[in-house]
Amino acid sequence: MIRVTIFNEYVQEQFSVEKFPFLKDWPEDAIRLMTERASEIREAHEGGAIHDTLKNLVQECDDVEVRHIANVEMPENGLTEEVLSDTDVLLWWAHLAHERVSDEVSKRVRDHVQRGMGVIFLHSAHMCKPMCDLLGTSNTLRWQEGQSEHLWCCSPAHPIAKGVPACIWLEEEEMYGEYFDIPSPDELIFIGGFSGGEVFRSGCVWNRGYGKVFYFQPGHETYRSYFQPDIRRIIQNAVHYLANPEMRGQKLECIPV
Q1: Is the model's pTM score more than 0.70?
Q2: Is the pLDDT at 250 greater than 80, yes or no?
Q3: How many domains does the chain have?
Q4: Which residues of 60-91 are buried (b: 16+ CB within 10 A; e: fewer)?
Q5: Residue 207, SS3 per DSSP
Q6: Which residues pair with 66 in a beta bridge?
Q7: Residue 169, CA distances (Å) to 93, 194, 234, 247 in order
């Protein structure tokens, strides 16, 4: 059984300055917009939260079990040493509160990936601390809401692309565009082409120690991308590809011979 932990920041679904005082310095119009958007997000996702959608998505696979769900409000952001030791693949969705994840937790995630844990960073998680720690780059990009996307598979023989068509059409998706400040992927699997003409490296894998990192771009919080069967298949495939339970717990260290 593949053990999965889901980290969902869980700020946007509950957005309010009263609940999250760190938002008080935001401009008033931004607070108003995000407060209105919170209800849209709850309506768009099973159970009213992004982590509910992701849990149901991965547990469609008989050999996958969601063991833990974590968020920024929990002690140690819900990602204790015990939780990560009980995790084969970590899914990470975040957007507004990257700085609310502690540096210690970020380094803990990095260390567990190097020891064999897989991690899947989804959509706006591109600038979360663990992804920046693992890749060593800013992970900045260009963006614009309200476009449509052709998601092209450029590595059809890759296990993450198993059973996926050459092109997936997403009627609504947030545009992420180049330049995307990431290291050259070890494996480039998907390229997004958007209605405004922009392109993006939308599905990338990097090897880090004994583990692997997968970044996957679709998944704007108010859209229904995670309910598209081919998008679900990609994430499920990625969970299987990144799971490496045989290596979990080993350390990267210099070995005398």
Answers
A1: yes
A2: no
A3: 1
A4: eeeebebebbbbbeeebbbbbeebbeebbbbb
A5: strand
A6: 4
A7: 22, 10, 14, 37
Query: In sequence order, what are the residues at sequence separation of 6 or more whose Cβ sits closer than 8 angstroms to the Cβ of residue 42?
Result: 13, 48, 49
Residue 174 is which amino acid? E
What's the whole-number average pLDDT of the chain? 95
Tell whether 148 is covered by a domain: no
What number of H helices and E strands is found in the chain? Answer: 6, 9
Between these two residues, 16 and 102, which has the higher pLDDT value? Answer: 102
List Cα–Cα distances, 100 to 8, 121, 136, 181, in angstroms: 12, 17, 19, 22
**The pair of three-digit structure tokens given for residue 60, joined into one six-digit string:** 């469609």
- Answer yes or no: is pLDDT of 177 > 80: yes
In a domain, 28, yes or no: yes
- 68 assigned to some structural domain: yes
Q: Strand pairing partners for 93?
A: 8, 122
Strands 89-93 and 2-8: parallel
Q: Quick check: helix, strand or coil at residue 69?
A: strand
Q: Is 192 inside a domain boundary?
A: no
173, β-bridge pairs: 147
Q: Which residues contact 104 (CB under 8 A, 6 or more apart)?
A: 76
pLDDT tens, 43-64? Answer: 999 899 999 999 999 999 999 9
**3-class secondary structure, 183:** coil
Backbone angles phi, psi at 33, to 5 degrees: -60, -50
